[in-house]
Design brief:
By secondary structure, the protein is α/β, with parallel strands linked by helices. The chain has a domain of about 140 residues: Vaccinia Virus protein VP39 (Rossmann fold), CATH 3.40.50. The chain is about 25% helix and about 30% strand. The protein is built from six helices and nine strands; from the N terminus they run ααββαβαβαββαβββ. Strand 7 and strand 8 form a beta hairpin.
């Protein structure tokens, strides 16, 4: 899988090394284990999916992470992206709105440390102001709009990586240049499950 990612343009050696070290099959249902290293998305429950490895690597590379950066992740999901960020020595705060997935991720990181600095059950649109500002913010679901709270919680000089759009998303990198100044660049089209508001309990 790592050689495939490199062939597709993932050039950050630290990112590739993190993918070598984090076993993707641990984040999937055991029935899917034989397919874990294919570049495919798979269901993880609560009508959510684990993203393609390439998508996870692409977003991670766009973050331009350095050790000890404070990162806010919107959408913990299976915890795979979270684990990659932790492996890259980021201080990770991760938010999940689906109670079922939040509980699964919490249990997973108890069994497979290290985990994020803080795992939060909450609304990703609101971010997590308690630990703001953040050096980096990554959104792992398709956002129909850019949440204003996330812009407020980004450090000056910080980056927000967010797939923007409804049926199809454009991957944006938004750099905060000043208190009210932001610069955005586009980095191709992707498809994500939608970013939803408010928390969702077990059915």
């Amino acid at each position: 899988m790592v050689s495939y990612l490199a062939k597709r343009g993932i050039s950050d050696k630290e990112v590739l090394t993190a993918f070598e070290k984090i076993p993707r099959h641990l984040f999937l249902d055991p029935t899917l284990e034989s397919h874990a290293y294919e570049d495919k998305a798979f269901p993880i429950g609560a009508e959510q999916t684990i993203s393609h490895p390439y998508t996870v690597a692409f977003q991670t590379q766009l973050l331009q992470l350095k050790p000890n950066m404070k990162v806010l992740e919107i959408g913990t999901g299976s915890g795979y992206q979270t684990a990659i960020l932790v492996e890259l020595k980021a201080e990770v705060y991760s938010i999940e709105r689906q109670l079922e997935l939040y509980r699964k991720a919490d249990d997973f990181f108890v069994l497979h440390p290290p985990g994020p600095k803080r795992l939060i059950y909450g609304d990703g649109y609101k971010g997590f102001s308690e630990s703001a500002p953040y050096d980096r913010i990554i959104v792992t679901a398709g956002a129909p709009e850019i949440p204003k709270d996330l812009l407020k919680q980004l450090k000056i000089g910080g980056l927000l990586v967010i797939p923007l759009g409804e049926k199809q998303q454009t991957m944006l990198v938004i750099e905060r240049k000043g208190s009210r100044e932001f610069h955005r660049t586009a980095h191709g089209d992707f498809q994500f499950v939608p970013l939803l508001k408010e928390t969702q309990g077990l059915k």
